[in-house]
Amino acid sequence: MSDNSAVSTVLNVLLCGATGFGFYKIGPSEHPYAFTACVFGFCHGLFGLVSSLTGDENAKKVTDTTTSIMEILPLPLVNVDLYLAAESNNIALGHGLFIVPLAVSVILSLFKGESGDEGEGSALDTLKTLTILGNITSLLYLSINESSWNLAGMAFLAFMAKFGAKFFEEQISEGSGEPVTYLSWSGFYVLTALATTGEK
After folding, report:
1. Per residue in 93-123, is it b (16+ CB within 10 Å) or e — as a string?
2. pLDDT per position as a tens digit, 73-91
């Protein structure tokens, strides 16, 4: 097992553990959206674990697909759940609507394969970035209204998972983006479990 594979294995185990903590703390009947976000995170960690341990090409393809889903899906789902708990149904509906065009774009990219226009600066990339920034801003707004450090930490970790990892990869050291992303996702899920159960 190479060093890169060992690091990837540890990061995927950490993600599975964080989402498992979410399963334990978050009830699916009380918080279905946050629980669904944990399910996606757990599946991504599990597929990544299988991919890093076996080196299977099919598992690698599934991990790549779930990575694109992980970039866009958990944050809006958690925001929907948090705003429903705060009884802001109109804002929760808005966050739910963020998911629809992005889900369609992920499905279309699966059918297009490698020939799709998904590079830097593409319309899809811009839509993803705007959606993530909108959800982070909304989470910060809710954290200020609720006076919750957990929500502020979730916003910071969501920012780090997308933009901090990119900065580390391009400016600090090649290969450092993945650990930043996985550590941010793991922290995000732990704080999600705490925030949805009412801990500030």
Report:
1. ebbbebbeebeebbeebeeeeeeeeeeeeee
2. 888 888 888 877 776 555 6
